[in-house]
Specification:
The chain is of the alpha/beta class. It has helices at about 70-75, 95-100, 130-140, 165-170; strands at about 5, 25-30, 40-45, 55, 75-85, 90-95, 105-110, 130, 145, 175-180, 195-200, 210-215. It has a seven-stranded mixed β-barrel. Strand 11 and strand 12 form a beta hairpin.
Length: about 220
């Protein structure tokens, strides 16, 4: 029997969103009602980076590739899972750290940070990648990176400053797909032999999209 783990957070009104004006709150309003209109429908207002989502290069790279143009063969297939759940808060993952990791074209990093989902803690002090780690991942031909944290960048870097989201920019500039806010990685006990399916909404010209992400074997 196939084993499937859903790595996707539910989208719900009141769910955590990054506290910045360019990341709106989630609003869900029921419009159609079975008792009156004979059917149920809902209005859904969300940002492109809501919940478990996929970043396209356009997120930080001017004229970069958009979410609807990411090749599906990048988003479906074998995936390596690297267990970094032993790392402490604000731990810097360096190129040296990654030398012992078994990387693949598609790689998920399990930091165990999903335990903070639903609290303000989720958005700060998580482990992050250094600039040399990003270059190392590129040198190993990693094309898709999944994380259960909000970002591959240090949460202490000032947004909008001279050095803003450098790891994002390094990876997205080379068309690496980033999947953030993964859920349920605590259910992964054995990291070997998994495949991934990560499908964003096909939003024309968009910088990102919520995505349904599952692993199976």
């Amino acid at each position: 029997m196939m084993e499937i783990i859903d790595l996707t957070h539910e989208i719900d009104e009141g769910m955590p969103t990054f506290t910045a004006p360019w990341h709106p709150l989630v609003h869900i309003k029921q419009l159609g009602r079975i008792e009156l209109e004979g059917r149920e429908t809902r209005e859904l207002c969300i940002g492109t980076h809501t919940g478990t989502h996929m970043d396209a290069p356009l997120h930080f790279i001017k004229n970069g590739n958009t979410i609807d143009r990411i090749p599906l063969d990048m988003l479906i297939g074998p995936v390596a899972i690297v267990d970094f759940s032993h790392l402490k808060e604000n731990h810097a993952v360096t190129a040296e750290t990654l030398e012992e990791a078994k990387l693949a074209k598609r790689t998920i990093f399990k930091f165990g940070w999903g335990r903070h989902w639903g609290s303000k803690k989720f958005f700060k002090d998580y482990p992050y990648f250094t600039a040399d780690a990003a270059e190392y991942l590129l040198s190993k031909k990693v094309e898709l990176i999944g994380i259960d944290t909000p970002s591959p960048d240090d949460s202490r870097i000032k947004l909008g400053g001279e050095v803003d989201s450098p790891v994002h920019k390094t990876l997205l500039d080379k068309d690496v797909v980033l999947i953030e806010y993964l859920a349920n990685l605590d259910r992964v006990r054995d990291c070997g032999g998994w495949n991934i399916i990560a499908l964003p909404l096909k939003i024309k010209g968009a910088d990102a999209s919520p995505a349904r992400v599952c692993i199976y074997r």
